[in-house]
Design goal:
The chain has 123 residues and is mostly beta strands. The chain is 8% helix and 45% strand. It contains one helix and seven strands; from the N terminus they run E-E-H-E-E-E-E-E.
C-alpha cells in the first residue's frame, strides 16, 4: 500500500487518507438524538376544547356541551353549532361548570375525552 505525502509550505509532511479508507462514525450523542427527533415529523397534539357541563349524573363521567360558530356557505352568516362530548371526570365537575377537556384514548363506547381543569365553577 502506498501512502500519499504532500509537502506543506512550512516544510512539514502530512499524510493524506487513502481514497478507500472508511471512517467509523462516532456514537450519536444525546444532543444529536434530540436534533434528529426535532427534524422528524412532529407528534400530533391532543385537541383541547372548552365547554359547559350539562350532566353529571354518572359516576366519573360528565356530559360537556361545546359551542362553535360556523359560517354559512350561501348566506355567509355565522351559525351556532353545539356538540356533546362524554368526558371522564376525576376532578369532580358539576352541572353548570365550564371545563377544559382533552382528547384521550377510548375509555368506553362513547367516552374519548378527559376533564383536565375546571375553568369556572357554577355560581
Amino acid at each position: 500500500m502506498e501512502q500519499n505525502i504532500e509537502e506543506v509550505g512550512s516544510g512539514e509532511a502530512t499524510e493524506l487518507a487513502e481514497p478507500n479508507a472508511t471512517e467509523i462514525p462516532a456514537a450519536p450523542t444525546e444532543a444529536a438524538a434530540n436534533e434528529a427527533a426535532a427534524t422528524a415529523a412532529p407528534r400530533h397534539r391532543r385537541q383541547e376544547k372548552v365547554g359547559l357541563v350539562t350532566s353529571d349524573r354518572m359516576q366519573k363521567t360528565v356530559v360537556v356541551r361545546v359551542e362553535r360558530q360556523v359560517r354559512h356557505r350561501k348566506y355567509e352568516r355565522y351559525i351556532r353549532r353545539r356538540t356533546k362530548f362524554m368526558a371522564h371526570d376525576e376532578i369532580g365537575a358539576h352541572t353548570g361548570d365550564i371545563v377544559r377537556i382533552v382528547e384521550t384514548r377510548p375509555l368506553s363506547a362513547r367516552k374519548r375525552w378527559r376533564v383536565v381543569e375546571i375553568v369556572q365553577k357554577a355560581s
